[in-house]
Automatic annotation (TrEMBL), chain A:
Organism: Westerdykella ornata
Pfam families: Kgd4-YMR31
Chief subcellular location: mitochondrion
Subcellular location: Mitochondrion
Entry keyword set: Mitochondrion
GO-annotated biological processes: 2-oxoglutarate metabolic process
Signal peptide bounds: none
Tagged with keyword Ubl conjugation: no
Biased composition (Polar residues): 52-69
Family in the record: Belongs to the alpha-ketoglutarate dehydrogenase component 4 family.
Name listed for the protein in its UniProt record: Ribosomal protein YMR-31
Region (Disordered): 19-87
Domain of life: Eukaryota
Automatic annotation (TrEMBL), chain B:
Disulfide pairings: 83-88
Binding sites annotated in the UniProt record for NAD(+): 222-229, 245, 315
PROSITE patterns according to UniProt: PYRIDINE_REDOX_1 (PS00076)
Enzyme class name: oxidoreductase
Organism: Westerdykella ornata
Reported cofactor(s): FAD
Presence of keyword Oxidoreductase: yes
NCBIfam families linked to this entry: lipoamide_DH
Residue sites binding FAD per the record: 92, 156, 185-187, 356, 362-365
Record-level Gene Ontology MF annotations: dihydrolipoyl dehydrogenase (NADH) activity; flavin adenine dinucleotide binding
Residue stretches making up the FAD/NAD(P)-binding domain: 45-371
Lineage: Eukaryota, Fungi, Dikarya, Ascomycota, Pezizomycotina
Protein name per its UniProtKB record: Dihydrolipoyl dehydrogenase
Length: 121, 528
């Protein structure tokens, strides 16, 4: 036993066990090149898309993952208002499709024009 | 009032052209595709995965376990992708069984086992292969049910950023909406220009596992892992196999040059022929057989090789045909790979790509790691794959396996390194098995002795590399502290290779060769 202890004092294994998996407290979620990417860089389109896109609040703001740790960990309200900044306006046609006006069908147009008579024609 | 009488949604449902521009939809035609109101016709999933291969099905199960509402779309009709259906699994069945046959023919006599009247029943061998495949693919279906994964059999294509249209195998169409979408559509064999693949005379790996009879002559274009494995199978079953490789070594660029040379010698001894530094200039499959014109890669005399079957194994390319990437404006790089960031996100952050369809080596176990990491990014905000510690295995006999960097890469990078090797001919278990071809080769950093690469050719190499991968993985976790021990006088043996060498390995086992090779990097092996 003592012999082992002497050996252990002299030798320090360099293997470092990873231990229990924990999520680091700070994670940078901004897009970087993938480690296996041959070019080592991201195309322009990544930044361009984020500049334009708004999804549950602006995409280029820091994600709430690091503080909450999981989906739904923070209420959506904490992301702040989705209203545009002052001086910036959304056009209805720029909103997601579900907020846009629906097109009239021919049947509906005819129904209005004929006072409903076309429904019974 | 008339809204009830004229259900607008129904009258509008037949799809008009889908707009190609994405986030905002100024296109007026897009409006008509939606019902009035916020609800869509089916519930929105948390995650939809396009492709039920190794990346896709693992992600689906992992997401199901995490409690996400998940659906997996697969068009093949069975899960598991190339690997389970026409790749790793069926080829390993054929490799194992053809090896048994080869061993009975050539090897059992010296072991004191005399077997008479040995012959190949190819039909039965294929049936055994199919039993293995169907057992495993059905197993995944069971796991899907167990983990509440919805399995949609059909071909998926992006309709918009959140909607995937599915052309169902059984007829009909459906759409699925999801908050997150994973693309894991995998890869396909790269065709050889000038040869039309019919999977009978001119085959890819898919045809190579389903030949109806043993060809007399087979030419393999490409001396990488797939070419050598399938070449081995048919060579053992009696075909005269010639491998044509453009590069100066077999096994592809990842294999260590010394190991590649040894492997080539062993395979040549088994009857395979090799033409290295040779390029295929043309092929003619119009006759009964196939003629392949080859010449030296740097130019030289042309030669015509006759073959009954030509296996095209020059590599694989990402498969995204029919996926509707244009509809959402996703681009691929010059090799057809979907461009992703460090969290597997495409430029559209809720759409991620994993597996063969994106960067990195096209290996099933790499796809599996990525699947788990990508789902963890989704559920926990953090995932991890160490691309420096992904093993490669070639299942010929003897097997070849490696992890980390090889000598030529280290030389090119100007890294100072030490090499320790140990031959299986000095290993007791290999001796008792009468299976002593091959070596274990450790490469470690000359200053810190941290393991940089491990290369094995020999019996059971594929299983043994797991220990090397583990050592490399843990080594990687302590980077920066690597030369911690060098401060201590004469305690330089306290290094990673020594960590392996100081670990007791059972006797007699093949893994003792692994231990002794580690010992040889900083000292001398005991038994050699």
């Amino acid at each position: 036993m003592n012999a082992t202890r002497v050996l252990l004092q002299q030798r320090q294994p360099m293997i470092r066990f990873l231990g229990k998996r924990t999520t680091p407290s700070h994670i940078d979620h901004t897009p970087h090149a993938h480690p296996a990417s041959p070019s080592g860089s991201l195309p322009e389109s990544f930044a361009a898309y984020r500049q334009k896109a708004q999804q549950h609040g602006p995409l280029n703001q820091r994600s709430s993952f690091s503080s909450s740790g999981h989906i739904g960990g923070r209420p959506g309200a904490s992301l702040g208002p989705v209203e545009p900044q002052s001086g910036v306006y959304f056009d209805r046609s720029e909103l997601p499709a579900r907020f846009q006006r629906l097109a009239w069908t021919q049947a509906e147009i005819e129904a209005v024009e004929s006072g409903g008579a076309s429904l019974f024609a | 009032m008339f809204r009830a009488a004229v259900p607008r949604a129904r009258s509008l449902l037949p799809a008009r052209p889908v707009p190609t521009s994405t986030f905002c939809a100024p296109n007026i035609y897009f409006q008509g595709r939606l019902r009035r109101g916020y609800a869509s016709d089916s519930e929105e999933k948390d995650l939809v995965i396009i492709g039920g291969g190794v990346a896709g099905y693992v992600a689906a199960i992992k997401a199901g376990q995490a409690g996400l509402k998940v659906a997996c779309i697969e068009k093949r009709g069975s899960l598991g992708g190339t690997c389970l259906n026409v790749g790793c699994i069926p080829s390993k069945s054929l490799l194992n069984n053809s090896h048994l046959y080869h061993q009975i023919l050539h090897d059992t006599k010296q072991r004191g086992i005399e077997v008479e009247g040995v012959s190949v029943n190819l039909k039965q061998m294929m049936k055994a292969k199919e039993t293995s495949v169907s057992g495993l693919t059905k197993g995944i279906e069971f796991l899907f049910k167990k983990n509440n994964v919805e399995y949609i059999k059909g071909t998926g294509a992006f309709q918009d950023e959140h909607t995937v249209a599915v052309n169902l195998i059984d007829g009909g169409e459906t759409t699925v909406r999801a908050k997150n979408i994973f693309i894991s559509t995998g890869s396909e064999a790269t065709p050889f220009p000038g040869l039309t693949i019919d999977e009978k005379k001119v085959i890819t790996s898919t045809g190579a596992i389903a030949l109806q009879e043993v060809p007399k002559k087979m030419v393999v274009i490409g001396g990488g892992i797939i070419g050598l494995e399938m070449g081995s199978v048919w060579s053992r079953l009696g075909a005269e196999v010639t491998v044509v490789e453009f590069l100066g070594q077999i096994g592809g660029p990842g294999m260590d040059a010394e190991i590649a040379k040894m492997t080539q010698k062993m395979l040549t001894k088994q009857g395979m022929k090799f033409k290295l530094n040779t390029k295929v200039t043309a092929g003619d499959d119009s006759g009964e057989g196939v003629k392949v014109n080859v010449e030296a890669a740097k130019g030289g005399k042309e030669e015509v090789l006759d073959a009954d079957v030509v296996l095209v194994a020059i590599g694989r390319r990402p498969y995204t045909a029919g996926l509707g990437l244009d509809n959402i404006g996703l681009e691929t790089d010059e090799r057809g790979r979907i461009v992703i960031d460090q969290e597997y996100r495409t430029k559209i952050p809720h759409i991620r790509a994993i597996g063969d369809v994106t960067f990195g080596p096209m290996l099933a176990h790499k796809a599996e790691e990525e699947a788990v990491a990508a789902v963890e990014y989704l559920t926990k905000g953090y995932g991890h794959v160490n691309y420096g510690a992904i093993p490669s295995v070639m299942y010929t006999h003897p097997e070849v396996a490696w992890v980390g960097q090889n000598e030529q890469e280290l030389k090119a990078a100007g890294v100072k390194y030490k090499v320790g090797t140990f031959p299986f001919s000095a290993n007791s278990r290999a001796k008792t098995n009468l299976d002593t071809e091959g070596i274990v080769k450790f490469i470690s950093d000359a200053n810190t002795d941290r393991i940089l690469g491990i290369h094995i050719v020999g019996p059971n190499a594929g299983e043994m590399i797991a220990e090397g991968t583990l050592a490399l993985e843990y080594g990687a976790s302590s980077e920066g502290k690597a030369d911690h021990s060098s401060n201590r006088l004469e305690k330089r043996e306290a290094d990673r290779a020594a960590d392996v060498a100081r670990t007791s390995h059972a006797h007699p086992t093949l893994s003792e060769a692994f231990k002794e090779a580690a010992m040889a990097t900083y000292d001398k092996a005991i038994h050699y």
